[in-house]
Amino acid sequence: MPPSIWPRLRNHWRAQWKSHLGTLLLVVLVFVGVQAWQTRHVPTGPAPDLAFTLIQSDGSHVDATLADWRALHPGQPVALHIWAEWCPICRTEEHSVTRLSRDWPVLTVAMQSGPPDAVARVLAKRELPWATAIDTRGALAQTLGFRAVPAFVVVDADGRLRSASVGYTSEIGMRLRLWWARLT
């Protein structure tokens, strides 16, 4: 752009800042409203104690519960990431979840992605070092209040569900939710 346009743009933004602020406020309200509607079935209070087959990062399978898994990470919030092998949006979050799992405890839940052996093959093929609960019929996700993937929820140090989201969640969004749960 020619240099003379910058002062005009700056003057335009100064003159129109209130309308831009109103637009930004409307976008934020719509976003918050959509998230509230999408997570309306997520229970409040203590996280349900789910029983599942757990694929560990080394590929082995064990029967576990959410309480058992949380006991491995005492006194800190943990993340639950619900995903599906067939979900394209879940694929875009894979690297974010992997990076997050290096710093925070993350339990992923493979919803309607097949039996443990099939999910283990997907994890190996995609090089995902996740601890993964198998949810062949979607019952675990539904108990947590999620009917769509991807979904993300924090279980705080007291075992309460917090900061749920459905749809794409950025890595910084995941980290901020966990950080907030640690602070409060």
| Low-confidence region ranges | none
User: Whole-number average pLDDT?
Assistant: 92
User: Distance between termini?
Assistant: 47 Å
Q: What is the CATH-assigned architecture of the largest domain?
A: 3-Layer(aba) Sandwich
Assign the structural class, choosing from mainly alpha, mainly beta, alpha/beta, alpha+beta, or little secondary structure. Answer: alpha/beta
Number of helices: 6
Largest sheet properties: 7 strands, mixed
Give me some keywords for this one.
alpha/beta, 184 residues, 7-stranded mixed β-sheet, Glutaredoxin, 2 domains, single chain
Question: How does this structure look, described?
Answer:
The chain is α/β, with parallel strands linked by helices. The protein folds into two domains: 1-38; 51-183, Glutaredoxin, CATH 3.40.30. Helix content is 46%, strand content 21%. The protein contains six helices and seven strands. It is elongated, with a radius of gyration of 20 Å. 29% of the residues are buried.
